[in-house]
Every structure is written in C-alpha cells, then in structure tokens.
Amino acid sequence: MTSLRVLSLDLNQLTGNISSSPLIHLTSIERLFLSYNQFQIPFSLEPFFNNSKLKVFSGECNEIFVESESSHSMTPKFQLESVALSGSGIHATFPKFLYNQHDLEYVDFSDSNLKGEFLNWLLENNTNLNTLVLRNNSLSGPFRMPIQPHWHLDTLYVSKNFFQGNIPLEIGVYFPRLVYLNLSRNDFNGSIPSSIGDMNSLEALDLSHNQLTGEIPEHLAMSCFNLEFLVLSENSLLGQLFSKKNYLRKLVSLHLDANYFTGEIPKSLSNCSHLEGLYMSDNNLYGNIPAWLGNLSSLYDIMMASNHLQGPIPLEFCQLNYLQILDLSENNISGSLPSCSSHSSITQVHLSKNMLYGPLRYGTFFNRSSIVTLDLSYNSFSGYIPYWIERLTYLRYLILANNNLEGEVPIQLCRLKQLRLIDLSNNNIFGQIPGCLDNTSLHNNGDNDDSLVPAFNHNVRSTYSAGSSTMEKEESIMFTTKEISFSYKGKPLNKMYGVDLSCNKLTGEIPPQISKLTRIRALNLSHNNLTGVIPVTFSNLNQVESLDISYNNLNGKIPPQLVELNALAFFSVAHNNLSGKIPEWTAQFTTFKEDSYEGNPLLCGKPLPDCDVAAVPEASNEEDGNSLIDMGSFYITFTSSYVIVILAIIGVLYVNPYWHRRWFYLIENWMTSCFYFIIDNLIPTRFYHACMQLHYYLV
Fold it and tell me: Residue 3 in contact with residue 29, Cβ under 8 Å?
C-alpha cells in the first residue's frame, strides 16, 4: 500500500510492538489512527522518524513505553499537526521530538502521569496550536505564560495537576481567543484574574477545586457574553453573587457550590433563559427561594442545599416540566409541600433538615413514577405514609426518618420492586412489620435494577469542551448504620441496601420473610415493642454488616447460627428478655463486647459470665407459652408474705392499747355506716321498723 495516506485502526483489540510492525514502512501515510487498542508504542515515536509526510498520529489508550535516552537521539523528519498519546500512565517527561515540532495544532497527553512544568515553550514554538490537553498528569510549579500572546489557542485543559501559586494576572491578555479554559483540581490560590473578562469568546470556564479567594470579578460577569459553563465549585470565594450587573445571559450551567458566597439569589439570573443547572449548595445564601426560578423553563437541576434559605417552596416550581433533581436540604424552608399538576420527570427530591410540615398529600409536585430518591427526613411531616407511594415504581431510596408520621407501615411499599433503602426511623409508626418486603430489590431475585432506572434527558448537562469534563453531581444520601450516619454516594450508594424502622411503636413478631432480604447490609429494628423470638433464619442475611434489634421485648435464645454472618460488624440485642447461652465466641462475634448484650440478665457465655446450668434455665425458641418464672416458688412466697403482714397487724393491736381502741372504734363506725346504707338503699319500707328495733336491741 505504497500510496496509502490515511489508516484508522481505532477501537479494536490489536496487539504487537509498533516498532516491528509493517506500519512503519508506510512512507506515504499522513494520518495514522491507532487509539484504543493494545499496541506497544514507543513514547518517542522513533519508528516513524523517517516518515516525512506524517501529520497526524493518534495512539491514545495503548501500551505506551519509554525507551532509554540513547535510543532516540535522532531528529524526526515529520512535522506533526496533531499528536495524541493520552492514557499511557508512563511516569516520564515529555518526549524530545516535541522540541522539533513547529506546526502542531492539537496536542493531547492527558492521563499519562507526566512530570515537569507547563509547556509554555510548546506554545512559543507552535503559533498555530489551538488545543492543548494535559489533564490528569503530575505537572507542577508555577503556571508560566508564553513570551508573546497566543492568538490561536482556543482550548486549554490542564486540570488534575499540581500547579501552584496565583493564576497569572494577564492570562486573558496572553490567551485572548480561548473558548474552553479548565484549570480545575490544582493548587492555585489568590483571586480570579480580572483579565479573564478579556476572553470574549470564552464558553466554558472551570476553576473548581482550588484554593481561590476573593469575589467573582465584575469584568468577567460583564464581558464574557458567550459563557455557557461557569464552574467555580470547591474554593474559598466570597461576597455577593453578581452584585452589580450580570450579562452572562447564555449560561447553561452555573456551579458555585462549596464556597462562602452570601446574600440573596441574584435577580439578574432570571435573564438566563437557557439555564439548565443551578448549583449553589454549601454557601451562606439567605432569603426566600425566588419564585422567578419557576420561569426558567429549561432547568433540569436545582441544588441549593446547606444554605440559610427560608420561606416556602414556590408554587411556580410546578412549571418546571424538565426538572429532574431538586435539592433544598439543610435550609430553613417552611410550609407545606406545593400541590400542583406538573409534567416533570423528576428523579431526585432532597428536602431533608428543613421545617416543612403537613401531610404528604396526593398531587404534590414530586408525585411522579420517575422518582428514584425521596428524602424528606428531619422535618415535621404528619399523617400517614400515603397509599399513592406505590405509584413511584422506580423508587430506590425512601428516607422519611425523624418526622411525626403515624399509622402502619403501608403494604404498598412491597410493590416497589426497585426499593433499596427504607428509613422510617424516629416516627410514631405502629402495627406490625409487613412480611412482604422480600418482593423488593432487597431480596436478590436476579433482576438487574440498574437497567430499569429512567434515563436522563439532558442535552448538555454532563460534558463540555475537549476531554469531556464531567460536571454532573453525585447523589448523596445519609443513612445510619453501625450507629453512625454515613453519606453514601457513587459506587457505595449503588451497593447499599438497608431497612431502618427504629424508634417507632411497632409490635408483633419479626416476620420470617425478613430473612429473605439477602442483599441487605443494615437492619435496624431497635427501640420498638417487638415480641417473640429472634428468627433462626437471620443467618441467611449473609451480607448484613449492621444488625440492631435492641430495646424490644424479644425472648428466647439468640440463635447460634448467627455466627455464620461473616460480614457482621455491628450487633446489638441489648435490653430485651433474652436468655440462655449467647452464640459461640468466634469469628465476628469476638468483636462484640458486653454492651451488645446488656439488659438481658439471663444471658450468659463469653464475653458475659460463664453459664451456670443450675442457676440459669435454658429457654426455648419455641412458642410454647411457658413462662420464665417458677410459678410454684411464686405462690409460696406470696402466701408467706401475706400471712406475715396479717400477723404483724394483730401483734401491734395486742401490744398497744391506744391503737387497740382506735381499731375497734374504726370497725364500729364502719359497721354503722354499712347498716344505714343498706337500710336506706336496699331494704323495703315494710321491713324498716323491724330493722330499727333490731338495731336498738343490738346497741
């Protein structure tokens, strides 16, 4: 193929060392695409040094290796326009052939763990360079600018490195044509340079996860007319948001979370008609949630948790037909939930730790089958858990803890096939635990839950610019396990299954079907009024890490089969009526101390005192109605006590004449009162005179 100019072998499973491949003899090749294979490619590209026509080389995501210094002393004959060797992870410095290149337009060495400083010399040597991607390396030192302004660079992507110091004040002067600028996840400090406002073509700016301070420059807010993505999360920025004017009317996604911004949500954002994502959590914002947010019809995400916002949830939110995530948790929001007819496909509702109240009425704006997460914990909601909850067919996480809910655990929960986490703790729920929870995904029925979750419909919510920078926020859910509240997100959340019904008024026995929840990692039934025995089949919960059934009225023995729970890290049966020998002190049970069993005086065995068979009766887990009290001993002691009390009274009356007279006086008055009561109320009139004569005679 002596005339072959373009060859693309991307996205295969090809192997072998390129140095000994026929590809190096394709002297007419101009564009060679080898990405996403298993080729062994030398980082120096020396096998292609004699190919003077080579313009484009793409070898990312292969097995890149570094030769010794002596093996690449030659000067390449090619002048590349594009080179991509990302994803190699080779722990080296930049290859020397780059120093001889002057026509480069695209360079991507991301995810390679390269060392050194910023390649300002590369910019100086290649004035036509328009894209430089150095994401996720080990570059360090100050972020130096080239000698002259670079008029062609439109994409600069250097996140996840170790650059230090201030962002150069004149960055906007040296890179005036930038469209995408990503300096996130470095160690930059100081303030945001005002010269960024000189980048009139800027569409995406990501300075997140640094140590930046100060306010958002006014020049940026007034001059970057084309800015669509502004990401300033995880810094130490402060001040009021867009306190004067805001001309960022093309904003699609605004990320200001985890800073120290104050003031109210600025009215100027109401002009951002294209806004899809508003992320302002973990700041010091205050005031009411503005009703005009409901007019931003393109909004997908509203995340403003952990602020000082107050007032009700605006009714105008019902107009957000594309809303998918609403997170207003940890604020001072009050009132009841708005009732409206919304057509949104909302998937996550996080309203925990507010001051919301009232019943969970039908017709609330989140009453949609698409919902996956419903977190209303730590509020003052009252009434019953509604029957319409069965319509939330995709519901995975139901968190209603710490409210004033009452009634029984609804049977409708058993129809939610995707349910993974149930937290109804600290309410006033009564009745029995439903035995049908094994119909949910807590029971390993072989279904793939992930494939059943509704897909997002976002247009541009997740990525922007070269390198596909992920901006989607990971969902976080608080759940208590092992007596500690953890925040689960990402992969740990996807693997978490649990049920928490603690601190309620539940009665009855633990249903045996609970033992079929084989995916469960945390089960908390403590602080209720449960009776009966601990099911032996609890030993089937082979993934459970936390099992708490303390503070109930359970009796019988602790099933010895529980020692088979190898994943168990927390176990408590304290303050019940259990008796007999505790499970063998082996495996995980060697980590459980006396406090796991306290409040059960008839338990014995290590780590408690050794069992005395004569003193401690063996209890049975069979429901035979036998009491743990020796009734024969009870009758003897009761009768003896009664006789002793009577004899003591007689002895006192005999010894003391005063109390002797008072006693007979009391008896006389009592007999007289009883006599007249009978005469006045029970005996007919014709017998009255005969009774009176008898009375005078007796007196």
Answer: no
